[in-house]
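For this section, I looked closely at a protein sequence along with its fold in token form, which I now present.
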Amino acid sequence: MPDYLNRRPFESGAPALEDGGSFVGDISVEEEIAALTMGLPHLILLGAGASKAALPFGDLRGQPVPLMPEIAEELGLEELFPADLRDLAHTDFEAAYSRLCDHGGPVVSELDALIGKYVSELRLPKEPNLYDYLNLCLRAKDVIFTFNWDPLLVQSQLRLHRAGVELLPRVFALHGNVAIGYCEACEQSGIGMVGRPCGGCGKPYQASRLLFPVEHKDYTSDPFIDREWRAMRYFLGQCFMFTIFGYSAPVTDVEAVAMLKAAWGDVSNRTMEQTEIIDRPGCDADELREKWDPFIHTHHFDVFDDFFSSWMAKHPRRTGEAYTAQFWEARFISENPVPRNPATLDELIGWFQPLLAIERPRRGDPLVDG
């Protein structure tokens, strides 16, 4: 059975209101921290806007993290495109790349290599980062699906693990990622494993492909990408909350958007799920509401213009418990906002210790998290 299907069901069944539906009182921060009732995943979908928000001033060495419309200029790739595609490369790089693939030739491989080298060299700053928050605010049952090629999310997971944090969300890369390796023989992937031997067959993990012709993608032709999308279809069908962070759902990426819609299903059947959109400061909430309408049931959505306003940041590692208390039990919930300006990563991890302590397996008890 694929590893992404290892999921725990609801631990206590659907929550019910006491006294036939009467108000049962507030939930304090201490009560929220102590509660572990949600077994279904919170699913996060990341686009380039998330990496841009994490590193607005560049990486450890000041290297910019470009959005897709910026990549041709930031990396100096314009001259690799024929004259008739250079303007398009500035406005819609993926569409220009797709048409370049139609022409064929060695320039496609050259582009792939240049982009892969650039993003592979990006490094997180030493200070606590938005990706550290994202990883710490989610549980081991939760999942992050990223469209980003950069290694930043994975670098955060690796340094948190080295610091002793073991209960981290699973990560899947829908467009490939320079920090995630894949063993085709064993159908296994591993973060930070590119070039290292597979534990199953001993062959080195291979880097995943990054660029696809966006106007006619065939995700099933690449075994790694096909596996990631199979995981997406499964988890998106099972999640209780769907958060879209910095992903614009470009009109050229028809195949990806269609697959997301198919996995979510008929919105009339998602009557209790919550959809959350995190975008840039000053974003147009009405426009985003309209764009993501196929994933929103009536009023079950939020639009935020920064991460710290999100459910994850206000109810870290307990989004499901807060969600059921507010929407299913009609109770008032207290917020437990993450600290905004910790001096060090250790300080940030220390703030999360009361939450992590509740989740750690205890002698004689079953695992309390998926």
